[in-house]
Amino acid sequence: MGSLFRQIGAVVVMTVQSLPSRFWASLTTIVSIALVIGTLLAFLAMGNGFQKTVAGTGSDEIGIVLGTGSSGSELNSTMPSSAVSIIEEGPGIARDANGVPIVSPETYVAVGAVRRSGGAKANISLRGVEGNAAGMRPGFTITEGRMFEPGTNELIAGAGVVRQFEGFDLGAQIRFGPDTWTVVGVFEVPGTVFDSEAWADLPVVQTLFNRGPTVSALRAQLAGPNAIEELQAYVESDPRLQVEVKTEKEHFASEAGSLEALIVFGWVIAITLGLGALAGALNTMYAAVEARTKELATLRAIGFGGVPAFFGAMTESLLLALGGGIVGVAAAFLLFNGINVSTLSGSFTQVVFDFAIGPAQAISGILLALVLGFIGGIFPALKAARTPVLRIGAE
Amino acid sequence: MTNALIQIADVAKSYRRGQETLSIFDRLNLTIPHGDFVAIMGPSGSGKTTLLNMLGGLDRPSGGAITFDGKQIENLSESKLSSWRAANVGFIFQFYNLMPTLTAAKNVELPLLLTRLGSGERNRRVQTALEIVGLSERKDHKPKELSGGQQQRVAIARALVADPKLLLADEPTGDLDRTTATEILEMLQLLNKDLGKTIVMVTHDPAAAKYAKRELHLDKGEFEERVS
């Protein structure tokens, strides 16, 4: 056994030392695998970043009430103001020092905006809110300017909106349809989708967007651990209410789930590209084994078995793949990690988020590279193991 | 003959080429005693290298028996044949067949990696083998940093290092100039006389064959012997 390990060790060392003589072919394999891994990581980083932002939004201590049939989307949801009055009197809702329920009725509309890069048009969310809205978003701060004045065409813009879209800088005037709005403040709720919204006074939004006496959602500060169940039971038992209740955390987690398709798509693209890289890796490895036929046959003549030859070729393939994997991960990290983009959310409005490459994405990339290296190496390695000893005179 | 290291009895070798069977030789007989130095000559295609490969267990006969030190080898399994080669045969090739990325010492050490020897003993034997061929000063040089003659001497050290009974040399001077060839042949002669190695050498060169104790001419499937 010790002898076998020594043989494998010797052949692996020889193989690795001979890599520079196949520099260009080896580099081609490394680059092609790096491209595959880079592409995969771009998708994974996007999915991961989006999930972090969407799933990072929302609290277990806040319930969100949406109209039945809204498919869990605030944009599709509508309920009459009369329902709000019934719900806010229900159980499970926390009350302030004066005994007033802590709730936030909100109306959610999509408005057009122009991207800073490229100038493309996209929808962003304009949320009509009242006094409790900010208090129900932990981390909410006004970083520039001030809060809007109720009853006016003033709005405050999320930091993500200001970064990604034109016309939302402090003091700017922006038109939505026939009406002109003034940006009087910039706010942040870091790492959440609220950063991608603009907020204005609820009655003004209801009026200017012809919503009448309806809201999209009601947020309610929950009173305790079982409050959500109590509230759910309450709304279900009242036939006047056509609504559904979830915690805000559950609501956004289900929105994040819609991004799984993007991640699957990323894997499909990466594996398709991987097949191309595999063809390149196979070619390189067959050529490498062919180039070493005389050496391998000589070793067989001396008495070495086929196993060390197999390991030598496999090591070379895995090393090239690992190199490609590391280059791919590093390139993706440098190019994508932390870049700020916006994409369509489940509500057909833009969510601004950062690409995020973490250990899980890096490990996925390296593992895919090694799988490509293994598949690309196995047949050439078997060929190496079966090198006929009579090819000893091969030139 | 009790002193025989190798006995070839009625050995045949033929190749199939499509429907045709090409016979290289049929019923070849030869005995090589311990300590012999045999040069095998003959025209191209006469089967010299094929015979050498069969003696070294690299190729198998189509018929007949090859006995090495009293043991039949032609029907050993592939892995047993590998172990047998590692223990009993040292090969010297026309184009040296050194590993280009390894130093002279590491090339020489290769056969010892198949043994149970520890690294200290392996290094000692490598040093001795390189001293025998006069290259201990060059042990850290890679093949491309050595002349053709020096590379062949490294190959001889590699063939010797595991102390095999039999050295097989296929045109060992075919790629060398006359002076270097003479040095190599004198070295083989020395290994035969002083270390008692049995050597079988295939060569085209009559001058090289003169260094052997016996010259065998293989032609049309038969040997003709000339004693030097």
How far apart the termini of chain A lie comes to 32 Å
Number of strands of chain A: 14
Biggest sheet layout of chain B: 6 strands, mixed
Poorly predicted sequence stretches spanning 5 or more consecutive residues of chain B? none
Q: Please count the beta strands of chain B (DSSP E, at least 2 residues each).
A: 10
How many distinct helices of chain A? 11
Unreliable spans of chain A are none
Largest sheet of chain A: 10 strands, mixed
Assess the beta-strand content of chain B as a share of residues.
25-35%
Which percent bin holds the helix content of chain B? 25-40%
Give the topology string of chain B: H per helix, E per strand: EEEHEEHEHHHEHEHEE
Rg from alpha-carbon coordinates of chain A: 30 Å
Strand and helix order of chain A: HHEEHEEEEHEEEHEEHEHHHHEEH
Distance between the termini of chain B: 21 Å
The class by helix and strand makeup of chain B works out as alpha/beta
| SS-derived structural category of chain A | alpha+beta
Number of helices of chain B: 7
Largest interface: A-B, 25 and 27 residues
> What integer is the average pLDDT of chain B?
91
Which features characterize this protein?
heterodimer, A: 395 residues, 10-stranded mixed beta sheet, 49% helix, B: 228 residues, 4-stranded antiparallel beta sheet, 7 helices, 10 strands, 32% helix
Give the arrangement of secondary structure elements.
The complex is a heterodimer of chains A (395) and B (228).
Chain A: H1 2-18, H2 23-55, E1 62-67, E2 79-80, H3 81-88, E3 103-114, E4 121-129, E5 141-145, E6 154-158, H4 159-164, E7 173-176, E8 179-188, E9 197-201, H5 202-208, E10 214-215, E11 217-221, H6 227-237, E12 243-247, H7 248-257, H8 260-291, H9 293-302, H10 306-336, E13 340-344, E14 350-354, H11 359-385
Parallel strand pairs in A: 4-9, 6-8
Antiparallel strand pairs in A: 1-11, 1-12, 2-10, 3-4, 3-11, 5-8, 6-9, 7-8, 13-14
Chain B: E1 4-17, E2 20-33, E3 37-41, H1 48-55, E4 63-68, E5 71-72, H2 78-88, E6 89-92, H3 104-109, H4 119-132, H5 148-160, E7 166-170, H6 178-194, E8 198-202, H7 206-209, E9 214-219, E10 222-227
Parallel strand pairs in B: 3-8, 3-9, 6-7, 7-8
Antiparallel strand pairs in B: 1-2, 1-4, 4-5, 9-10
